[in-house]
Amino acid sequence: MSYLDNILFAIVLIIGFGYFISNIKKIYRNINLGIDVDRKDNSKQRWKNMAMIALGQSKMVRRPIAGVLHIIVYAGFIIINIELLEIIIDGLFGTHRIFAFLGSFYNVLIASFEILALLVIVSVTVFWFRRNVVRLKRFVNSDLNGFPKNDANYILYFETLLMFLFLFMNASDLHLQDIPGGYSHFIKAGSFPVSQFIAPLFDGMNNDLVAMLSELFWWLHIVGILIFMNYLYFSKHLHILLAFPNTYFANLNPLGEFDNLEAVTKEVKMMMDPNADPFAAPADGDETPAKFGASDIQDLSWVQLLNAYTCTECGRCTSVCPANTTGKKLSPRKIMMDTRDRMEEVGRNIDANKGVFVPDNKSLLNDYITPEELWACTSCNACVEECPVSISPLSIIMDMRRYLVMEQSAAPAALNSMMTNVENNGAPWPYNQQDRLNWKNEN
Amino acid sequence: MSENLIVPTMAEMLAQGKQPEVLFWVGCAGSFDDRAKKITKAFVRILNSANVSFAVLGTEESCTGDPAKRAGNEFLFQMQAMMNIELLNAYEAKKIVTACPHCFNTLKNEYPELGGKYEVVHHTEFLKSLLNDGRLSIEGGQFKGKKITFHDPCYLGRANKIYEAPRDLIEKLDVELVEMKRSKANGLCCGAGGAQMFKDAEKGNKEINIERTEDALETTPDIIATGCPFCNTMMTDGIKHKEKEAEVKVMDIAELIANAQDL
């Protein structure tokens, strides 16, 4: 009896999961580069949101075609992966279809996996056509040029390949099961509504060859899954995991409510307090003065950074952005992609410098996101409302505007006059506050 | 001919030892912008005719700080907010109504954390409650049978999920309410939010207000209704750009109700 296969399988599993976990740790570390923000409140509502939006995909179906197809692929992904459990046990212990003892329930399981696999192939094919033949605007926008466009197609190819391997594995198995008198360990188990149409391909083939092919499909399938799992870290496909924490930790306040910067509150209160001594030493003297707004990823909150990793670049945000649809440079999707790219760059920097970030004279602002993009935003919240996984590109835009205005005094000239007016006249226009009630007596 | 609007100020009320039922926050547009002043007056006419006890801050009112905050100037915003809060708290304001969704959002959502906790309602909500309480009756009048489409202001709709109050009021006018292809949560911005009102747009191939005006014109309306002085400006400009000002009017819901009753 040879245990070589089983040992090899265990090694493959350990490498697959080991590399995956090491990258997950990196993601966790990078997200924690962000500043703290409390999202521990109202856990009941948060669980509900996660159940509805991530698990229940409630926002996906706002666009019915993509929504329904996505639910098929998602259900396929979750349900077919139950099969993984059997594959791993079989692989580690040298068994074959260990759950076959479940009898007719096993048949139902395998049959539903097969039907889902077929539906996934159909859905993924439609997705591919939407991207590459129909070329929906949000899939061909310039912010996807380069890797992002390929990434999207790689995912589709991978999913199709995995489904075919699964079906071919079953087809060859079925072929061997049906050999009169039985063949080796291929016991009669399972029901194969889809792969029964593939099985005839093996007719006339040498039985040993079919058994070898069956083994090969089995191996390619599981190794393929492990590779795909490890590809997540490098891909927009990471959303299949992060959509859950992201919807949980999302903002629960009304969309119109922007946070009040605490550091500013402190200073304003001191300015307005008639008893405050402007020359007094600050109570906590060692405190470094706060930086107002964000110019790089370390100035954003961990929720915003989690948002960036969660973004799957579907572009629904950009397709409803009033600035983008009227030809301005701003694309909310690009804001999220840029944030992730910069975060990865900072992460690589930390890896290369033994755990410490060495300044690289670059920043999210200017090197990735330009002021022109930031100033085109109308803060209308369409992008936030549209996002199927509760990402807020708007909050990043606002934090970066704050940096431009409060740290660099770099607002467009017209906004500077508006702000001067607010400061001097209590209105954004140059009218006298004493004239505020004049309308009462005008005709 | 000067009309007889009764507009008491909080200071006058206080001098008489009275507290109004509601404080009407007029806002900068409502105070200074010629078009928006008409909305302010229409709303006051309704308040007067419904015998609502209200008061304004008058010359004591100052910008909420909304445009400064959206532009990124948190300092200026919080200075404005704290001054206003000091004033509102000194008058012991409880309930505030405003016809500007930007003031509404800021007062309602961003002031509480800074010490300003009030019940804040948009004028469409307030008018709806007057209607529900039987203090206001709405009739179609000159608008009967007209085709009206409602443009959702972002800071009323998506920002605060108020979609029904303005529509309920419009429907009371015996009119045909038609929805644009993008409405409610999917509504398209008029282009003025986020302090865009006060600057030129970035380079692009179209102005946002033109895009939105086209949405509205697709419904072939007689009137485009709004509930925001800035949306009103943007849509009015859009209609002028399309040379449709003879056929299509842009009106605030308060104006529709006041005019329908010849107030």
From TrEMBL, chain A:
Gene3D superfamilies cross-referenced by the UniProt entry: Alpha-helical ferredoxin (1.10.1060.10), Transmembrane di-heme cytochromes, Chain C (1.20.950.20)
Pfam families for this protein: Fer4_9
SUPFAM superfamilies noted in UniProt: alpha-helical ferredoxin, Respiratory nitrate reductase 1 gamma chain
Keyword 4Fe-4S: yes
Keywords: 4Fe-4S, Iron, Iron-sulfur, Membrane, Metal-binding, Oxidoreductase, Transmembrane, Transmembrane helix
TM segment ranges: 6-24, 65-85, 105-129, 154-171, 216-234
Protein name, UniProt field: 4Fe-4S dicluster domain-containing protein
Source organism per UniProt: Flavobacterium glycines
From TrEMBL, chain B:
InterPro entries xrefs: Cys_rich_dom, HdrC_iron-sulfur_subunit
One GO cellular component term noted in the UniProt record for this chain: plasma membrane
Ranges for domain Cysteine-rich: 22-108, 148-235
Gene Ontology MF, one: metal ion binding
Keywords: 4Fe-4S, Iron, Iron-sulfur, Metal-binding, Oxidoreductase
PANTHER family: IRON-SULFUR-BINDING OXIDOREDUCTASE FADF-RELATED (PTHR43255:SF1), IRON-SULFUR-BINDING OXIDOREDUCTASE FADF-RELATED-RELATED (PTHR43255)
Protein name listed in UniProt: CoB--CoM heterodisulfide reductase
Species annotation: Flavobacterium glycines
